Amino acid sequence: MPSKKNKRKRPERPTIHPKNKYSDNPPDFSVLASLYPSLKPFVFHSRDGRPRIDWTDFNSTRELTRVLLLHDHGLNWWIPDGQLCPTVPNRSNYIHWIEDLLSSDIIPKNNNNGDIVRGFDIGTGANCIYPLLGASLLGWTFVGSDVTDVAVEWAEKNVKCNQHISELIEIRKVTDCQGDISIEDSNCGESVNCENKMDGNATVVEEAELLPSSSFDPPLDMNKKYSGPPLLLGVVRDGEKFDFCMCNPPFFETMEEAGLNPKTSCGGTPEEMVCPGGEKAFITRIIEDSVVLKESFWWFTSMVGRKVNLKFLTSKLREVGVTIVKTTEFVQGQTCRWGLAWSFVPPVRKIISPLVQKNSLSFTLEVWICPSQFNSRVNLSLKLFIHYSNYT
Ligand SMILES: C[S@@+](CC[C@H](N)C(=O)[O-])C[C@H]1O[C@@H](n2cnc3c(N)ncnc32)[C@H](O)[C@@H]1O
What is the ipTM of this complex? Predict the structure, then answer.
């Protein structure tokens, strides 16, 4: 007789966004191999008779991505050997999560660009996957930025060979000396050299009082501060307005760390995978840039690779006085990634729940409201957590 313990199964976490093309129809490698002979050499059958792909072989994963983009999205696509190869279903999850953000009514809709949705993909890579998917699935327009010549060259090729959406995507090369971009660093007192610097206004002070203490979060090691080329500040041009930015950052500090998952081979050069301070430093810089560029973006978002960093980053967001933070979990086979979104736009929705559930499902919202956004001088240590499912 099964024990009571076994009966109490934890609810299954959704691993794929319901709007994802593959949520009801996962790719059938046999069918695809019969339609695209170039895929055939990479498909084999396991003992249970199911068609499989060798995920540890870069050529297999690249060919599968090429075929899926062509077959399911009508996109021509290629990357040179060794460049980071995206998996289409999980990259689509991030796009659909942003779609949810834009359509949710927690903050007012952005009408800056009329009906046109405009996104900024920080580090678009040679694969240019997010602009290609966002443009082909949803008709969004994009600026995709990158620093390396190979990424910019191949992203441009991938855009040009898709005439039906090429008008929607601009690839922007980031250079080290772009703009005059040093921003105030309150921790180490570097020089301030930008017009719109972070200023400690009243909202920041109240926010610190109102939101949970971050005293247990480890600080960012000063030696590991992001010191690379600009991310947003200095790359976004005067007067540009975006509905969102997105980013799949270099997660790791070393290539050894990057190579820790022997179950997959998605390629990835050091420029794509690694930066001093890893994702924590990279995303911290995006947060700092967002303070200066709060008028230029409706939503800021980034992928986060490690949960411990998510905690650090959300506390950083509280410090800088955002009005909203939203997180989600992207489950990719055995790997978990997180989505982090924030905004400085005052929220309109007020669904209040006393607690943030610990083991929340994927694609859920956490919203923090700072009462000072409503010009209220409430002298209470008030914490409002809003939590609801994006599926509703
Ligand atoms: C993990 S890869 C992501 C590539 C692609 N977006 C994807 O999801 O597969 C990170 C990318 O960020 C780029 N990158 C690093 N620093 C950057 C910067 N300062 N500005 C723009 N891109 C940068 C790298 O060259 C690399 O292409």
Answer: 0.99
